[in-house]
Amino acid sequence: MIVYLDLLILDNFCADAALLWLAVRTVRGKYSLPRILLSALLGTALGVGYTLFCLYYTLPAAVDFFLKYAVALVLPLSAARFEKKRSYLFCSLAFLGYMFAFAGALTALCGQSMTSEGSTLVYTVYGIPSGALVLGCVVFAAVGEKLVKSLLAHTKVLSCTLECVLRKGENTLRLRGFADTGNRLRDGRGKPVVVAERAAVLKLCGDFDGCRTEKITVKTVNGKSDLFAVRIDLLEIYFKEGRHTIEDVTVAISPSPLAGEYGLILPASYAEEKNFQARG
User: Which residue, of 94, 126, 186, 240, is most buried by count of CB atoms within 10 Å of its CB?
Assistant: First the structure.
């Protein structure tokens, strides 16, 4: 039998890293990439050592079976932290399940090439190590998962945004507003406060001298801070076929840019559907 040691190491490491990650994620264990990689490295060392040992020595079938599956059961223990013993047990069983599935896939894909090579131990699919292929699939799935979550979060934000028109004198400004339940700011009159970027307020007012101003106190975990605020004549919020009009609105100026999807942070009370009337 011919064993390509470089392919054997790469194949084992990639396969162990991919299958351990899948098993830990399946039971939602607390993992970190370095721990998984170190566990995969340990599994690779044991797997390569076992393969080389078997080139020169033959173990009884019972011992061979025990060594193979004992290592598979123990390996997930170093890959993650488990709050309950049964979570570790389920992770080990999941790891075994993924190993069997991977072995079955390799048998289907590589069975013919392994037979044709005779005494050569083949670890590749079309010249690519099989472990590297499965790792590539796992990385693709992980990146896809993050992309989907990002898109869902983006869609959720967009679903909470409304078309708004701000008016000050003869000036108007059209922006998207985000209805935020966390916006509980109130002005000196006790009315809800809208938050906008400085650039947007300057477009509307031209300068701050022509707007009545006050300071809005904001309480955060870091303490208190004051936001410069202006008064505008009118705020119109559009939803479906309805419009909510609020006169004499206080707009606090955000010290930092808002998210790209919206230019206003609205009080949740302004975006309640009961406030909207059919457009005239």
Answer: 94
Q: What SS3 state is found at 205?
A: helix
Cα separation of 258 and 197, whole Å? 7
Q: What is the pLDDT of residues 103-116, one digit of tens each?
A: 776 666 655 444 44
Domain containing residue 127: 5-157
Q: Please give the Cα distance from 246 to 275 (Å, whole number).
A: 10
> Which of 157, 175, 197 is the endpoint of a domain?
157
Last residue within a domain, chosen from 142, 157, 172: 157
Residues 22 and 148 in one domain: yes
> How does pLDDT run across 61-103, given as a tens digit for each residue?
777 777 777 777 777 877 777 777 777 788 888 888 887 777 7
Q: Is 130 helix (H, G, I), strand (E, B) or coil?
A: helix
CA distance linking residue 187 with residue 200, whole number of Å: 20
Rounded (5°) CA angle 2-7-11: 120
Q: pTM score, two decimals? A: 0.45
Pick the closest to residue 137 from 154, 125, 152, 149 (CA basis): 125
Q: How far apart are CA 103 and CA 69, in angstroms?
A: 14
CA 181, chain centre distance (Å): 23
**Do 35 and 149 lie in a common domain?**
yes
